[in-house]
Records
---
Amino acid sequence: MLDQKIWRKLSRGPQVILPKDAAMISALTGLQSGDTVVDAGAGSGWLAIYLGSIVAPSGKVVSYEWREDFAALAEKNAKKAGLEGVVEIRKADVFAGIAERGVDLVTLDFAESDKAVAHAFAALKPGGWCVGYHPNVEQVKAFVEAGEAAGFAHDQTVECMVRELLVRKQGCRPQTTGIMHTGYLTFLKKPAAEALKPKE
Amino acid sequence: MLDQKIWRKLSRGPQVILPKDAAMISALTGLQSGDTVVDAGAGSGWLAIYLGSIVAPSGKVVSYEWREDFAALAEKNAKKAGLEGVVEIRKADVFAGIAERGVDLVTLDFAESDKAVAHAFAALKPGGWCVGYHPNVEQVKAFVEAGEAAGFAHDQTVECMVRELLVRKQGCRPQTTGIMHTGYLTFLKKPAAEALKPKE
Amino acid sequence: MLDQKIWRKLSRGPQVILPKDAAMISALTGLQSGDTVVDAGAGSGWLAIYLGSIVAPSGKVVSYEWREDFAALAEKNAKKAGLEGVVEIRKADVFAGIAERGVDLVTLDFAESDKAVAHAFAALKPGGWCVGYHPNVEQVKAFVEAGEAAGFAHDQTVECMVRELLVRKQGCRPQTTGIMHTGYLTFLKKPAAEALKPKE
Amino acid sequence: MLDQKIWRKLSRGPQVILPKDAAMISALTGLQSGDTVVDAGAGSGWLAIYLGSIVAPSGKVVSYEWREDFAALAEKNAKKAGLEGVVEIRKADVFAGIAERGVDLVTLDFAESDKAVAHAFAALKPGGWCVGYHPNVEQVKAFVEAGEAAGFAHDQTVECMVRELLVRKQGCRPQTTGIMHTGYLTFLKKPAAEALKPKE
């Protein structure tokens, strides 16, 4: 098991995808042990680590990060999680292209990620998924439009709301205040091989 | 990747934990490749298959199911998903006890699951998780009380709401109608080894 | 118009029904100018004032409050809102009974309000509404059971969630954090006259 | 009391503002008995009737509707509700201007309502409210921008979600499926007199 104390501590803050959203990415794409993932940007590395904990031991997550300091932090965190053989932090600019081919999932979590969807399309195997995470509706729309222009089918965009139920002797009730919105998750699917043929 | 067409088709209906809820179970406990899980009851087997796709290839999911027909269906589905070496469907009554020891996660999804939490406690390793899924608040309360009586700490109970955002040229808006509630997920944690010692 | 600055200032805090919930009470019962309301307890008087602003000028709201200090505060606030002829704060214990008869709406907002539903039933005209506000599910259940025992039909129980949409040049998104739960609103309806006859 | 059976029957369908949203309009603006309202378009007349039931007997609601058939229906419904002296259905095009001055509230519920906000500004008294109802985020943004250009301050945009809690002997739980989104409510406020002076 991933240590949830560390996970919770490091996954706080506006910059990090929360467990509830990371969970949607893996579950709604069907990610499993053995799969190959490209992630950008790494940030503190926690989405890469979460995805790595699922695709391990034979799968792989390559996480692009152009900032030196973030890349160093992400690498440290991946080692801490015991996933240094599975999660690779690559100091590179994802806007310049993705070197990998035939990957199962590309996750894009940064501003203007719509400008990287064509790279994601090239990296994915037929039937593979590209998932974008965006706080604003306008970003979602730009991402879907760029994705469709690149050849993707837009599967769905969702938001995930998690609310605690307080369970107490004196009475049960939902929590009073909390997180009402983090971001939208957009799922683009590269068409299966037969659907792609006419374009080749 | 798990085939999402099959997943979505089979995961419909009131009897099956939806992907959004299965996702919370794995992500909030930190389940990863190599972990051991006990699940009850199997039903159509899809929660067991989802968890199996994460813990594969060296991990294991044992799913208890006392109904002959459900057990046969679940076994067929596990084979279809290519996880017959990871997911074991066991035709047995979980109320009579859980044979496994040192497991990382026990998931309980059936009416009166509060009567099985002591068995879950015995099966788990220190620090392991027991997660219950219940549609009604009263069931949650009974489950938490039985869990605390068995030695568990109640970590949290949550509900997960997923809403689609329709992204269209003419305008973006959340979906008009949809699923508003499936069930509550209750997370019980077995105390770490040092905390358990005084009781031994 | 009621001054929203005062309204918002005074309607903050856990003890006061928020505008969103007050709004559900009036709109879902169809409260209108000329109606008669009994409210308990008054607290700071703001639910009484809100309801009074709708039933004015010929309607009436009698608000029961047994605490001397709260009754004084509520009376001061009603005068501030210019509704002293419409909203009457009565220093009395609602558990001892409701003097009014033929009223359109009774609102009950206090712990153990289930013990006052029989008084509400006696005060209401046939077809009238009794609305309870409760943070906890157990309170709702006790209220519904007591209401049905007193002769009411349970129309519905709802919770109302309001989320702000941030509208900005750089992008639109729901607010990040906020109020996730205040209380449940339970609507009990006294049967129409003809339905009541067999019991007379 | 407004008859809730009629209300509920007529307020179904995508074209009509639901009670939950009408409730937000009146409660968050502080609408009360004696106020003056301009509404457009009338549609079946139910928002006008709801608002009329609050501002009665001395207040007034003028509801603009350019379609002959809708105007006739709305007038019939207003009579049925006993509000023919309070609610006036005016067969006129709101894009051509609003004749009234010094009104407390203008409600705009139609596509491209951003093109009528300047008329709303002229009709309102200082401190008055203009509320728009829009299903899509893009419409909200255009409405806010047009409102600010016309001199309004954007107070807030909200969405209101109402979920039923099923209260049953066998257990309490939120409803399984239902309405997840109707529209966004945008509240624009005309600045108070002193703030407007420099512009005169």
---
Amino acid sequence: MDAVIENALIQRLTHALPRSARQLNGVRESDAELVRLPGGLVLALTTDAIAEEIETGLYAEPELIGWMTVLVNASDLAAVGAEPLGILLNQTLTPDLDGRFLDALQNGIAQAAEACRLPVLGGDTNFGRRLQVAVAAVGTVEGEPITRLGCRPGDRLFASDLLGLGGAYALARLSGDTATADSLDYRPQPRLAEGRLIRRHASCCMDTSDGAIPTLDELMRLNDVGFRIEPSLSAILDPAALAVCAAAGLPEWTLLAGPHGEFELIFTVPQSSHRLFLHEARMIGWRPVELGFVEEGSGLGLPSPEGHRVIDTLRVRNLFTEVNGDVRAYVSQLLSLDRAGPTAGVIRTGLRR
Amino acid sequence: MDAVIENALIQRLTHALPRSARQLNGVRESDAELVRLPGGLVLALTTDAIAEEIETGLYAEPELIGWMTVLVNASDLAAVGAEPLGILLNQTLTPDLDGRFLDALQNGIAQAAEACRLPVLGGDTNFGRRLQVAVAAVGTVEGEPITRLGCRPGDRLFASDLLGLGGAYALARLSGDTATADSLDYRPQPRLAEGRLIRRHASCCMDTSDGAIPTLDELMRLNDVGFRIEPSLSAILDPAALAVCAAAGLPEWTLLAGPHGEFELIFTVPQSSHRLFLHEARMIGWRPVELGFVEEGSGLGLPSPEGHRVIDTLRVRNLFTEVNGDVRAYVSQLLSLDRAGPTAGVIRTGLRR
């Protein structure tokens, strides 16, 4: 059984289901499902629901719920470099839902649909005891799509923007610090244009919907490689997120731990494409964040005062599930992980390039 | 505001949402959304969740829940004459869900996916207080798709098979008569091959997911026509459904009332295509059920001992929502509708052809 709790569940749910010969990616190999149509065009398909986020109070304002419903799906399309085509909405409404709340929810959906260029093609509405909004998004990929597979040691590691805002927002909101959560104005932006540029230059790509460390853990497992973060963490983390983290007395790396992410793209660019990629990024007014390198072996090396330390990414990734979503227990476990220092006693020297 | 409660809700939810210039159908004009891709191929997309059906106990066995989750979406693809491509699964599981129940649920999904030739492309899993399974299905349409629009007076009205099993099943199940519900072995079959044949010959098509009368009501509104059922009701209704109906002391026509349907296709064939259509149907071993004719004007005329009587389809369609899903109140209201006789005093003479 897979040591990653989420992957073990996916295996249990999917092992008996029929697969398609037209599909280009295997289970977990891509943020969006890639299907070659008769005629050769590749379709990108994804579905994500906003349900637990409403139940736990992580997303409380109706506009944000609506925005995120679309954005999380657009993020998956972005990660395969797709051109957006549209979405289907699947809404479960509660019978007593306030009319203004509903209008604001639909307004958030409409705003994100405009921002992501994902018109609403259709949908289905149900009534139930709990509000839930699911979206299925469709895009097309011109040329070869990019997946989570394909990076090699020596490739450069990037993020589409500064990281950590998803973690900081979740920490504030779930700790009941509404003022701080509101001040962060958490509203991830679509990365579709960036994703199409990444598709032409990068060797693999995945979004940080579950946080940067779980994303890097998944890419490590799929590609049988390690990662080494080069800049200091304060250089790759959002300043507002760093402030929340400092106020809470948490070490900076915990902003990368998930399970709630910032919906940026993490991707790798071969050395040979590095210069052209940065040039083209500049041309669309985008400045990707250099994170470091892909390495041989396994493990995630983070910069620390004593050189690089390896983070137990598997433990970090399973932690929130293991503590049954208890935020205080989660934070306390992250702190003891931090005090434990480098796992398995391995300090990676890494390869410098 | 639309007099149909469901349509008024759809209007409220969708009026502010951006639409796509690539979409061939307007809101409500088609069972599946039709989008023309770059290159010309038409994509058919639909989404439907099984949620209320679980909550009310209408679907209780996990295999049936799984089967219906896929089938209701396949039925929408069938209604536009699509070739199935695949589905995305969006599952909300309860944390305490029994392992055998989950395996049986996935087994039902797998069986229907095989039967409908809809491989599972991917999905998303959430945890929540209530089990829910949503599917988004994708297909392609070769040539011109068929929609709910296009029938004309004089066209012949058909169903893909005998009607009434969905109504009888729901009546038995929701009245707590488990033995009868089980004996019906309710498991609608995919009509995708039939749908592709219908697409080439028919003038409009819609599935009976909400029951035959709501389907005919919607087609009447969209096409500004009436319908006249010609055969006796016992000739177009499933014998097992008729037996349930007789045992409950209900008039036969109530089997067509919905709100739970039999997931057959209702469609219209122009007189000029009638013979060729029936010939080709025979070639694939399918015997469509002749229901009657499209008429000028409006209203649904059902055969009765005193000639044709017009059913108040709007009232029938809104009834279950108006009684807040109370089955006893619903049945009692259907009975008083029946006693009230022809609505608005209009007995249609109809056009004979």
